[in-house]
Amino acid sequence: MAKKIDMFPAVPEPPYSMSDPAIPEELFTDLPEEEKFSEQINRPSISYWKNAWMKIRRDKLAMIGLVFIILMILFAIFVPMFSPYTYEQQDHSALYQPPSAQHLMGTDMFGRDQFTRIAYGARISLTIGLVSAAVNMVIGALYGGIAGFFGGKVDMVMMRVVDVFASVPSLLYIILIMLFLGSNLRSILIAICLTYWFGTARQTRAQILSIREQDFALAAKVTGETDLQILVRHLIPNSIGPIIVSVTFLVPSAIFEEAFLSFIGIGITVPVASWGTLANDGMKVMGMYPYLMIFPALAISLTMFALNFLGDGLRDALDSRLKK
Amino acid sequence: MSEHLLEVQNLRTSFVTGGGIVQAVRGVSMYVDRGEFIGIIGESGCGKSVSMLSVLRLLDDNAAVKADRIEFDGIDLQKQTRKSMRKILGRQIGMIFQDPMTSLNPLYTIGNQLTEPLCYHLKISKADARKEALNMLETVGINEPEKRLKQYPHELSGGMRQRAMIAIAMSCRPKLLIADEPTTALDVTIQAQIMELMAELKTKFTTSTILITHDLGVIASVCSRIMVMYGGKIMEQGTAGDIFYRPRHPYTEGLLRSVPGDGSGPKEKLIPIPGSPPDLMNPPAGCPFAARCKKAMKICGLAMPGLVDVAEGHKCACWLLYSRASGNREV
Amino acid sequence: MQDRVLLDVQHLKMYFPISGNGLLHRKTVPLKAVDDVSFSIIEGHTFGLVGESGCGKTTVGRTILKLYEATGGKIVYDGRDITAMTEKEYFPIRREMQMIFQDPMTSLDPRQTVNEIIGRPLMLQKLVSSKKERDERVQELLHMVGLKKDHANRYPHEFSGGQRQRIGIARALGLNPRFIVCDEPISALDVSIQAQVINILGDLQEKMGLTYLFISHDLSMIRHISHRVGVMYLGHIVEVADVEELYTSMRHPYTQSLMSAAPIADPEIAAASKRIILEGAVPSPLNPPSGCPFRTRCRFATDTCADRMPELKDVGGGHLVACHNML
C-alpha cells in the first residue's frame, strides 16, 4: 500500500550560513542567466484524462469498485461459457442443494445450478446497465446540448417537453411498454432508455449554458470560430467529464431498476434468470434455503456498491476543475 | 506570559494535492504586539494567507501544520482542541476575509449573524446582544442599522457586506483581528471607505491587527510594521518607512519599482520583475527569489540566507548583506 | 504622420433585457449597461476606459467586438460601419480586432494545449498553410511574449497567472491585429507580473503600431499606458480628456473622488493626501437615478442634476465633461 507521505520533506542543511566567515569568493559572482529557471516548468505535462486517471488510481474505493466491475464482467462472459451447467438445465436429483464443490452456490427448486444462473443474470444486468447508459448519454447529451447551445425559444420548448415527460412516474411508462412489447430484455431496455435520459439532458444543458459564458468561449468567437465550431471544439469537450459522471450513476440505477421490475414480477420471465428474479425466487424459500436469497442479493448489492464507488471516484476526478 | 500577543516560530505548512506535496509555508517566524497594526504583503501563492490560517488552525484536512511554537496571549494554540479553538476564534481573534459574500451565511439575516457570536461567546441575553449589534453596525458606519439587522447578505452592497463582516469580527472586542485581503474584491471608492474604517477602528479599540494584502497602496498608509513574504518565506520586515524608502531586499525593491509612480515625473518604463514565482511543489534549495533576481549570485542558488538585522527592527534575508558580498557588490 | 481615427464609437447603447417575474406575461426591464457612449481612438494610441465594476466598461469593449449586438449607436472601424454587419461580412475584420481577457484562468480552454490555443486561430484565418508552418509561428509568438518553445505542448493549468496571460496575448497577436481590446488584462495578476504584461503591451504598440482600448479600474496603470482616458459611471462617460489633462485638472466630481480614493504606494504621500471618501455605493443600473447618474453620491448635487442628464461639453482642448456643476 501507499507509504505514509512525508508532509515536511527535510530541508537539507544549507552548505553555508550567513555567519560562516569562509565562503568561497567564487560564490559571490553573478548567477549566470541560464541557471535562472524561473520560466521553467518542472512538473510533467499532464492532460485532463491522464490527471483524472491518476486521481482515480489514488482513490482506493473507486479502484476496488473498478476491479470488482471488471471481475464481474469477466464472470458474466466466461462462467456461462465454461460451466458444465446451463441456466435452464434442470436436475431433479439435486434439488435445493446447499453450496458445495459441484454447485458453488447451491441449486434451486429445479436443481438448476445457481452459480451459472447468477452469471447469466450478470449478463442481463450488465447489458442493461451499460447499454442504457450509452443510449442515455447519446440521447441526453445531444438533446441537452442542442437546447443549451441554441438557447432562447428552442431551449425553452425543448426543456418544457422534458419537464412534461419527467413529471410522469417512470414506472407508468415502463408498465405500458411492457404491456405492448412483452416482458423481455428488449422491452426493459427500451423502457429504461426512454425514461432515463431526462436527467442527462438537463445536466448537459446546464453545463453547456455555463461554459458558453466562459471567457474562452468568447475568445474563440473573437478569433473567428463559428458557433458550431465552438460547440464541437470547446463546449462539448469541457462538459463531457460531468456528463460521464452522471451517466456512471445511471448504470447502477438501471441495473437496480431491472432487478426491481423482475423482483415485482413484470421484468424478465422464466426460465431466463436475472438477479431480480433470482432474489424473488430465493425470497420465497428464504427461511429454509437462505443461500438462494443471499447470493443474488449479494450480487446486486455488491455491484451497486462497486458502481457507486466508481462513480464517486469519477466525480472527484472529472467534475472538479483541474487544480494545481 | 510572553510580551507578544501572538508569537509564531518556524511555522511550516504543507498541502497534499493531486500532483504532490506543496510546501506553502516554509519556516515563518513572526510576532504581533498588543495594539500593533502589522501588514503581510506578498503575491498570490507566497503563503501569506496560508500562514495565518495555519495559526488559527482553519485549514482543510489535506494540510499539515508544524511549528516550534504558536502562542497567542499565553495560550499554546497547537494544544487546543477543535472545541476550545472555537471559543478563541470569534471571541479573542476576529477574522475578515476577501469576499464578504462567501464568508457571510446567505441563509441568515445580518442580525442573526451578529448576535449569535455575542450570545455564544459573551453569554449575554438576546436583547443585550441586539443592542450591541445595533451599536456595532453604527460603529462601522452602516446606516439604518435597525433595518439592516433584518436583511440578508445578498440585500447589501459589497461595501456594506464587508462592513457587516467587520462588525461581526469586532463585535466581541477581539484582541487580534486578522484581515485577509479585505478590500481586494471591492471597488476603489469602496476600498477607500473600508480602509478608512479600519484605521478608525484601530484607534477606537486597541485591537491588534494583521492585514494581509498584495496591494502596496493599501498597506502603505495604515501599517506600522510590514513583512514581505515570497515563496513561503519572509524576505524582509521592518517599519513602513524601512520597506517603502529603505528596502534592502531586491524583491522588495522590485515590487516597489514595478508599480507606476504618482505620475508627476516623466513617463518612465516600468521595471518588471522577470519570470514567475517558484513552484512550491519543488521549492528551490536556495533563495526562492534567486531565479528572478537581477543581483543573484551563485551562492543564492545554493543556500537560503537567514534574516539579519540591517537596522533597528529592520530585518532582511539576502546574501547581498553578507559581509564579504557587500564589499564588492552594490546593494 | 496625420492622426487618423481608427475606431469611432458614436452614441453606443447596449441594453440587456432582464426578464421580470410573471408566468405568461414576461415583463422585460432593460438593463442599460451602456447608455449613449461616444469616443474615438486614434490609430497607434491607447484609450483608457476607467470605472468601477458594473459601470459598463467591459460591455463597451465586448459590444465593439460584436460579441453583443448593440441596441443603438454606431461603431465605425477604419472608416467602415461595422454595427450592422453580418457575421459573414464581419469575418475578415474580426482578425484585425482582437481581445485580451481579464481572467487568464478562464480565457484559455483547459482541454487544449498551448499549441492548439494559439495555433487554432491561425488555421481558421488561413494565416498559415500547414501544420508545420503553424507550429513554427506558435513558437515565434511564444518567444515574443517571453515564453519557451517547449511550453507549446503544455496545458493552461500548468502555467502561472502571468504566463497564462502572456499566452492570451500571443493568441491575440497571432492574427496580426490592428486593434486590441484589453479588458482588465492585469487586474487578476500579481503586482510584479502586472508590469511585465504592461511592458509587453507597450513594446508591441511601439513595434507594430497597435491601437488599444485599455479597460481597467487601476488609475495609475491607466495613466501609465493611455494617451486619452474616459471615465465611466453607470453606463455613461462622465469625463474624457488627454491623459495628463485629466489627471492634473479633472473637472467632474466623480473623477476627482475616484482619483483621490486610489491607494498610493508611498506612506508619506498617502498620509499627506486628502481623500474624498464617497458615501454609499453605485446605484443599480436596473433602477438608475433620474438625471445625472452620479448625483446620489455627489457632494455638489443640485435640483438641476435630478432633472436632466448633463451633456458631454467640451471645456477646451478636447476635454469633455458631463456635469452641471463642474469643478
Provide the number of structural domains of chain B: 2
Mean pLDDT of chain B: 86
Mean pLDDT of chain C: 88
Assign the CATH topology of the largest domain in chain B.
Rossmann fold
* Fraction of residues in helix of chain B: 25-40%
Secondary structure: number of strands of chain C:
12
Largest inter-chain contact set = B-C, 43 and 43 residues
Strand content of chain B: 15-25%
Instruction: Provide the low-confidence segments of chain C as ranges.
Output: none
Assembly state (oligomeric): heterotrimer
The biggest beta sheet of chain C is recorded as: 8 strands, mixed
**C-alpha geometry of chain B:** globular
User: SSE order of chain C in H/E notation?
Assistant: EEEHEEHEHHHEHEHEEHHHHEE
**CATH class descriptor of the largest domain in chain B:** Alpha Beta
Walkthrough of the structure:
Chain A is an all-alpha fold and 324 residues long. Chain A has helices at 48-58, 60-82, 114-150, 152-167, 170-181, 185-212, 215-222, 227-263, 275-284, 290-319. Chain A has ten helices and no strands. Chain B is of the alpha/beta class and 331 residues long. Chain B has two domains: 4-92 and 174-321, 3-Layer(aba) Sandwich (Rossmann fold); 93-173, no CATH class. By secondary structure, chain C is α/β, with parallel strands linked by helices. Helix content of chain C is 32%, strand content 23%. In chain C, the strands form two sheets. Chain C has an eight-stranded mixed β-sheet, with helices on both faces. The chains are: A mainly alpha (324), B alpha/beta (331), C alpha/beta (327). Chains B and C meet through helix 7, helix 8, helix 9, helix 10 and helix 11 of B and helix 5, helix 6, helix 7, helix 9 and helix 10 of C.
SSE arrangement:
The complex is a heterotrimer of chains A (324), B (331) and C (327).
Chain A: H1 48-58, H2 60-82, H3 114-150, H4 152-167, H5 170-181, H6 185-212, H7 215-222, H8 227-263, H9 275-284, H10 290-319
Chain B: E1 6-17, E2 20-32, E3 37-41, H1 48-55, E4 63-66, E5 69-72, E6 75-76, H2 82-88, E7 93-96, H3 100-103, H4 110-122, H5 126-139, H6 145-149, H7 158-170, E8 176-180, H8 188-204, E9 208-213, H9 216-222, E10 225-230, E11 233-239, H10 240-245, H11 250-257, E12 308-311, E13 314-316, H12 323-328
Parallel strand pairs in B: 3-9, 3-10, 7-8, 8-9
Antiparallel strand pairs in B: 1-2, 1-4, 1-5, 5-6, 10-11, 11-13, 12-13
Chain C: E1 5-19, E2 28-42, E3 46-50, H1 57-64, E4 72-77, E5 80-81, H2 87-94, E6 97-100, H3 114-124, H4 131-144, H5 161-173, E7 179-183, H6 191-208, E8 211-216, H7 219-225, E9 228-233, E10 236-242, H8 243-248, H9 253-261, H10 267-272, H11 303-307, E11 313-314, E12 320-321
Helix pairs in contact in C: 3-4, 3-5, 4-5, 5-6
